[in-house]
Design a protein that fits this description.
The protein is α/β, with parallel strands linked by helices. It has a single domain, classed as Carbamate kinase (3-Layer(aba) Sandwich), CATH 3.40.1160. It contains eight helices and eleven strands. The chain has a nine-stranded mixed β-sheet with strand order 4-3-5-2-1-6-10-11-9, sandwiched between helices. It has a two-stranded antiparallel ribbon with strand order 7-8. The relative contact order is 0.17.
């Protein structure tokens, strides 16, 4: 079967690692995601990953605790590195070489983010995990994902969620919500569909980088997308 995408950036929320838990990392979910990523690598795809940190620390928690917004964002960035280390370890247990690149220098646990180095790792077949967001407060991991995808010349951003695409409303709350198979950036903006935060969304639009929102919790979906099957919602 032919492969449609050569290099992809997979964007995951930190909450996706919680599984059925209320906090932290569910080992079953990291094992599942690692196995899915392995199928993509085995198919010859170059895979980069950006993970959020909401399962460990949320910016809102900082505000509620009286912590300065910038400081809270740095705490969230550290949480993304913790998630990156966890995913890296589980992927490597499956025999896939990985590199964790952090936007905040932490030499003992990661390499510093250098664009050309990241691309070289991908060319060598290594899974590259980007940690610590953009390295700056006030930017989300959605924005970090969009920025890194553009920097490494990814073909597409694959945004893994718990639902099978973009809907007119939350399908978990509204059973009458309509699913969209395809949207332009303009349509998604006009319909206020919150695909990503506006900074990330605008970056993708200005750089003609398509986004596919799909259910990553369904086994085989990632590989099916790579082979060109119409899974989830495409924004382009």
């Amino acid at each position: 079967m032919s492969r449609k995408y050569k290099r992809v950036l997979l964007k995951l929320s930190g909450e996706s690692l919680m599984g059925s838990r209320q906090f932290g990392i569910d080992p079953a979910m990291t094992q599942f995601y690692a196995a899915e990523i392995k199928t993509a690598v085995d198919a010859g795809c170059e895979v980069a990953v950006v993970i959020g940190g909401g399962n460990i620390f949320r910016g809102k928690d900082a505000e509620d605790a009286g912590i300065d917004k910038a400081q809270g964002d740095y705490m969230g960035m550290l949480a993304t590195v913790m998630n990156g280390i966890a995913l890296q370890s589980v992927i490597e247990n499956l025999g896939i070489k990985t590199r964790l690149l952090s936007a905040i220098k932490m030499e003992q646990v990661s390499e510093p983010y250098i664009r050309r180095r990241a691309i070289r790792h991908l060319e060598k077949g290594r899974v590259v995990i980007f940690g610590a967001g953009t390295g700056n407060p006030f930017f989300t991991t959605d924005t970090a994902g969009a920025l890194r995808a553009i920097e490494i010349n990814a073909d597409v951003i694959l945004k893994g969620t718990r639902v099978d695409g973009i809907y007119s409303a939350d399908p978990l709350k509204n059973p009458k919500a309509k699913k969209f198979d395809k949207l332009t950036f303009s349509e998604a903006y006009k319909k206020n569909l919150n695909v990503m935060d506006m900074t990330a969304f605008t970056l993708c639009q200005e750089n003609n980088l398509p986004i596919i929102v799909f259910n990553f919790n369904k086994k085989g979906n990632l590989l099916r997308i790579l082979h060109g099957e119409k899974i989830g919602t495409v924004v382009s």
